[in-house]
Records
---
Amino acid sequence: MSREALSALFHEHARTLVRTAVLLTNDEELSEELVQDAFLGLHRRWRRKGPPESPEAYLRTSVVNACRSALRRRKVAERAAVPRLVPDGSAEAAVLLREERAEVFAALDGLSRRQREVLVLRFFLDLDDQAIAATLGVSRGTVSSTVSRALRALEDLLGGRG
Amino acid sequence: MTTDPETRLRRAFEAATAGVQAPPEPDWDRLRPRRVSAVPAAVAAVAATLVLALTVGLVRGADVAEDAFTPGAATATPVRPAASPVFAMRQRGGSRPQIVDLATGAVRGTVRPPSGYDEMAMSSLAAAADNRTFFFTVRKSPAGRWMVARVHTGDSGRPEGRAVLVAQAPSARDLEAVAPVDETLTTSEPSHWASVDGLSVSPDATRLAMRVGGKRAWGISFWDLRTGRTATWGSSVSVSSLAWARDGSLLWASARWAGRLDPKEPPSVLRATRTLSQRDDAGRFELLPDGDRVVVRTTPTSGRLLKLTDRPDLPNIILDTWVTTVLDRDWAVSADGTHVLYQRNGVRTLANLTTGQRTPTRLDGSANQTSHFAW
């Protein structure tokens, strides 16, 4: 794979993947590193075995798996329970919006890891059931039921806070 | 808000990550082709190395045989001072340092430590006068040797790749060999390595000085980053602050005394050349290149930013006074010694040490209050 093609792929997808990883780990530094490693992994794989069917899907799966491993390895799950996620110097100073966001993330912390993953892949990346299933290595039926259950649980949690 | 969960999720996801930037592009050339035919030999070599490392670790203690640092291996090209500093390195707790924009408070990038060096609790920070070269201390484990890493940023403030190791703290034994040892101080768990209590980088980023301390001794460790030459000066007291003078000498100060050393001379024990006034600051001040000191004095309800001259013919200068409801406790002098970044009622504020002009920054909030800065 040419360096130019790899670079173009990086510029097209890296930021979105970091944002996805941030939503899963709540750790921006870690997310940057995981995404860079995912791209290096793609580079390595491409050179050894040729291109994957979809480089984008390959990267997505790498990042989600890396987030899981990192959360286990570095035990940042405790940190993920803190509804930080407010970028420094953000212009979004609207108190209502901030409170709304904090409520949603507090509710997300009450979900299982897989429920959180499917919600991020569905409602941040706008992936359909099939793409989510491919990313997580589960069946479409599992995705569908996990999304439904996660939304119901989220609604209960948000309702309980309201 | 009464919208459905899906909409709330989308809105929260979008807003929470809107400020996230793309990471720096990896160094694609980092990957080297693997030689399949060499695998058995490589496995054997790795196994032999592991056995050797385990043996050494068991015999000498695992934290002793840890670094693969080569003094002088990292290049050090003199840098030019920036017209005015716009970035600062910020560190919160034990997290990785970030480069922040002083004017907007925006994070320009996160600094990645050298591979394997993730332990950064209580690390020290420093900046060169170009405002693009930053230094910080790292180690592999809580019992490991403190190393100094350097990172360059581009004009956008984004770090250019992973930080590299440029210097290391002396061993406790090397420090005690040059310092007057307080024999009354003993410990049941002696440390192998000296701690690094502070860093100071020459304005051109080619020389580095560390305030170091062991369980029974203190001193200053000097590094010429172009040659890898190093020397350690011992001290009978803990050194509180360092600054590079315009003539290239290194100024030092403890809570009560101050002096000057020439890094070109053979190392010895520090000799004080003056006694400091205002001992109530207990060493909590920053030295300036002209030997004056900057200090923030706070009470539960007020704060004062002062420039202490220690000269009978020149009075101390009060640069700012304010009423405060928070504990304003951290401040940092710019690498060129012309400005100070201090907390004023919880908001990081810039003060020009010559004119006294003050400019509030966007670095506010509890996170910034508990962070350390170098710039």
---
Amino acid sequence: MTLEQILQILNGKEVYLPNEEALAQDFAFVSATDLMSDALAMVKTQEDRTILVTGLVNAQAFRTAQMLDITNIIFVRDKQPSERDLAVAEELGCNVFSSPLSMYEACGRLYEAGLRTATR
Amino acid sequence: MRETYQVQKEDFANAGKVSSHIKTTLKQLGVEPALLRRIAIAVYEAEINMVIHSDGGAITMEIDEGSIRFTFADQGPGIADIEAAMQPGYSTANEAAREFGFGAGMGLPNIQRNSDSFDIQSSPAGTILNLSYEVNP
């Protein structure tokens, strides 16, 4: 499923999009957590097909994604990163989106659409 | 090649910067992606641990032909019960750490799983964590 389709499912909006080509790329896995150590315990190695869905809106979400080679992050509940945090996303080249859905509903919709967990 | 980086106590705003730098450096040196990711995860967790739990310390990276080694040496106050700290889910992190997304109790287990060699020694004077990775020339 393309990132563009994922964003439609989540009613997502772009917050910061340095790599527009990602919208047409295919994604199959989701790491969904507010705990960065849980994200870092990710076992799937297809990081280029994985998105991070989180309610944790700070620089550590972007740094965690960088360690995992994930470059697309969706914040739930319409959360917006601060200018200072966005500067980290800019430094690391992360695409950033937000969705009005709760974590529960966002994950439910993505699972129903066929995406699967990237963590164990 | 040997480099040392300082890490400050409870400096959450800059936590992870050293790990970002290390990952970028190793990528430029041509470390293969799967190994690079294991190193990045372990080093990041260990850096965050230092920020959350220690009074500050230093991270040293040493690279030679056959290996990449890291030493995380902090100034205390030490880990009271290392065996407990190695159990997934065990955490003594404070509220500030949790607000930044840490304190899940997965740090040390994640570090161990993502290292080739893992050794930790701790006393009230400080904790020394040694990690190493074999590199195929």
